[in-house]
Specification:
transmembrane helix, alpha+beta, Solute carrier family 15 member 1, protein transport, four-stranded mixed β-sheet, four-stranded antiparallel β-sheet, cell membrane, POT_fam, 55% helix, 684 residues
Length: 684
């Protein structure tokens, strides 16, 4: 039944004009969701300063929530508000959530001392969590409604157009995902801020928020053209009730027609339960698949993203998946499957799903092999009870630095530095510095589990200072700017704090010395590297600087991630596409929504599995965690293969046709009984 005033909507090229608003709406919404999600784990790691494990846990909790809320959205749409009002109301919640996320990432919100870092991180965390909960409610709530609402716009005789609409609809999802995972990491890599320049997370979250607002406005503009089907009750509620009475005897006094319809519903529910039983092992696939946005992105932060003239950001590597999907889907359908068929191999849907699970397991073995190579290149940081110290000599004379308890001595030439030396923090008490004919002693009180750089200089007397990024080796006070980032004013022989810069590029370093600007282009700052830069002087407006490498650049190239992305994308093509196709082919026509909800639930459970496995395993090596997930999926794959072997394919249309025939016979029987009863009454 249609809402009042819903006449046949205007058409364009044989399609209802209203669907174009729905497709634009879906493109903007998917851009918003995937754009925000692409930079989320790096926001946790670098802005909120969470470690890799906590960042991964919160990321997967959020994704799981996004795939649990569709059940709520379907119930609201089918039982209460209808699809249109549900989409509008939850899109408003969604837009507010995206806006809150953008605000939460504004560094200057709590940076009252203007030192470049938030003074009250808990405010940013609270806003972030509020924003993510609202986004999960919004994106999950509208997920089951938008595509179904688009399907509602077509007439019964427009089956061909409806099928093509769903293809275009899926294309808009992938287009939004692809563009957003390219664009938002670029926005994140920019520098912005009111008082201090930081990575531009407000813009990276703000653009998706703006796209979500556009999505909502576009959808509302088309309101007058939509065919709005009134809510008719939720089939999932009926199925839940039916499961409870499948094996219960029915009262003989029920009307025959009601009895027949209940018998049909019970048979349909049994068919759905049969498919849902096969869903039980599937979450393990999604547990691996969704780690593209968490563990694999974090893995990319330890790799070299220099692709010649293009510098790829770690979160941009996720674009490999949608790009390969666009290529692989037609190739697999047009080339791979026909070749398998020619080889006389019966590649059934359940066998395809089994192969998909095996390939995903293989992808994580590939990720583990890459991780082993990365681990060989990573610096060894101090444990909790250890301290690492590096010495840099910025004076004109050589220096000998002696650490006591235990005694360790190093000689450092002028403008040279040592590597990091590891000490037991509790035994590290003082350091003696000898340069020329002078001696000085520095008392050491340093926290454990961290690295420190000691700058020494022999001038009028020996000076020693714990330093980080920039060291002013001039007698004058200077102001330093690197790129768009301005550092605090540096007194003579003082140092600035470290700051983050996009890897793989050069930046302009400018120092204002006695009101005279002096600049130089920095060396290429490799991905993952850290430097201490000494400002030595200025000659003809050219700044004289010396670099001391604290952490060497990443050497394993990001291109080594492409094989694991390729294998996982192949797995997705044969698993995800086939899984939905199989589910729809085995389900009665009125049970599609139940299986859609069940399918989305497997994604949610998969993300919860990541939390459980990563939390319970306590593995210190990342490669070992990858192997653990690969082994778990391989075991689940074997279990699924056994379940699939015993599965019997059915044709729901044939079953429904049998029920239609039985109902016709029952109606005829009832009519005959009624006629006989009428005749008997008339003869009395």
């Amino acid at each position: 039944s249609l809402a009042k005033g819903d006449e046949k909507s205007p058409s364009c090229f044989g399609y209802p004009l209203s669907i174009f608003f729905i497709i634009i709406n879906e493109f903007c919404e998917r851009f918003s969701y995937y754009g925000m999600r692409a930079v989320l784990v790096l926001y946790f790691k670098y802005f909120l300063q969470w470690d890799d494990n906590l960042s991964t846990a919160i990321y997967h909790t959020f994704v799981a929530l996004c795939y649990l809320t569709p059940i709520l959205g379907a119930l609201i749409a089918d039982s209460w508000l209808g699809k249109f009002k549900t989409i509008v109301s939850l899109s408003i919640v969604y837009t507010i959530g995206q806006a809150v996320m953008s605000v939460s990432s504004i560094n200057d919100l709590t940076d009252h001392n203007r030192d470049g870092s938030p003074d009250n991180v808990s405010v940013h965390i609270a806003l972030s969590m509020t924003g993510l909960i609202l986004i999960a409610l919004g994106t999950g709530g509208i997920k089951p409604c938008v595509s179904a609402f688009g399907g509602d716009q077509f007439e019964d005789d427009q089956e061909k157009q409806r099928t093509r609409f769903f293809s275009i609809f899926y294309l808009s999802i992938n287009a939004g995902s692809l563009l957003s995972t390219i664009i938002t990491p670029i926005l994140r890599a920019q520098e912005c801020g009111i008082h201090t320049k930081q990575r531009c997370y407000p813009l990276a979250f703000g653009v998706p928020a703006a796209l979500m607002a556009v999505s909502l406005v576009v959808f509302i503009i088309g309101s007058g053209m939509y065919k709005k089907v009134k809510p008719q009750g939720n089939i999932m509620i009926q199925v839940s009730k039916c499961i409870g009475v499948i094996n219960l005897p029915r009262s003989e006094i029920c009307h025959n027609m009601r009895k027949a319809s209940e018998k049909r519903l019970i048979a349909q529910t049994k068919a759905v339960l049969k498919v849902l039983f096969l869903y039980i092992p599937l979450p393990m696939f999604w547990a691996l698949f969704d780690q593209q946005g968490s563990r694999w992105t974090l893995q990319a932060t330890t790799m070299d993203g220099n692709f010649g003239s293009i510098q790829i950001q770690p979160d941009q590597m996720q674009t490999v998946n949608p790009i390969l999907i666009i290529i692989m889907v037609p190739v697999v359908d047009a080339v791979v499957y026909p070749l398998i068929k020619k080889c006389k191999i019966n590649f059934t849907p359940l066998r395809k799903i089994t192969v998909g699970m095996f390939l995903a397991s293989l992808a994580f073995v590939a990720a583990a092999l890459v991780q082993v190579q990365i681990d060989k290149t990573l610096p060894v940081f101090p444990a909790a009870g250890q301290t690492q110290i590096k010495v840099i000599n910025i004076g004109t004379d050589g220096a000998t630095v002696q650490f006591e308890s235990p005694l360790q001595s190093v000689n450092v030439l002028s403008m040279e530095s040592t590597g990091y030396m590891t000490f037991d923090t509790s035994r590290l008490q003082s350091v003696n510095i000898i340069s020329g004919n002078k001696t000085a002693t520095e008392v050491i009180t340093l926290p454990g589990g961290s690295r420190h750089t000691l700058a020494v200089k022999n001038a009028a007397s020996i000076a020693a200072k714990w330093v980080s990024l920039f060291i002013n080796n001039l007698p004058d006070t200077i102001n330093i700017t690197m790129g768009d980032t301005a550092f605090e004013t540096l007194m003579s022989f003082s140092a600035s704090n470290y700051n983050l810069f996009p890897g793989g590029r050069k930046d302009n370093i400018m120092a204002i010395i006695n009101s005279i600007p002096c600049s130089v282009t920095s060396k290429t700052l490799g991905f993952g590297s850290a430097y201490t830069i000494v400002i030595n002087g200025c000659t003809g407006n050219t700044l004289d600087v010396t670099y001391s490498e604290d952490i060497s650049p990443n050497t394993v190239h990001m291109a080594w991630q492409i094989p694991q992305y390729f294998i996982l994308t192949c797995a997705e093509v044969v698993f995800s596409v086939t899984g939905l196709e199989f589910s729809y082919s085995q389900a009665p026509s009125n049970m599609k929504a139940v299986l859609q909800a069940g399918w989305l639930l497997t994604v949610a459970v998969g993300n919860i599995i990541v939390l459980i496995v990563a939390g319970a395993s306590k593995l210190s090596e990342q490669w070992a965690e990858y192997v653990l997930f690969a082994a778990l999926l391989l075991a689940v794959c074997i279990i699924f293969a056994v379940m699939a072997y015993f599965y019997t394919y059915t044709d729901p249309n044939e079953i429904e046709a049998q029920f239609d025939e039985e109902e016709k016979k029952q109606v005829k029987k009832d009519e005959d009984v009624y006629e006989k009863q009428t005749e008997a009454v008339s003869q009395m």
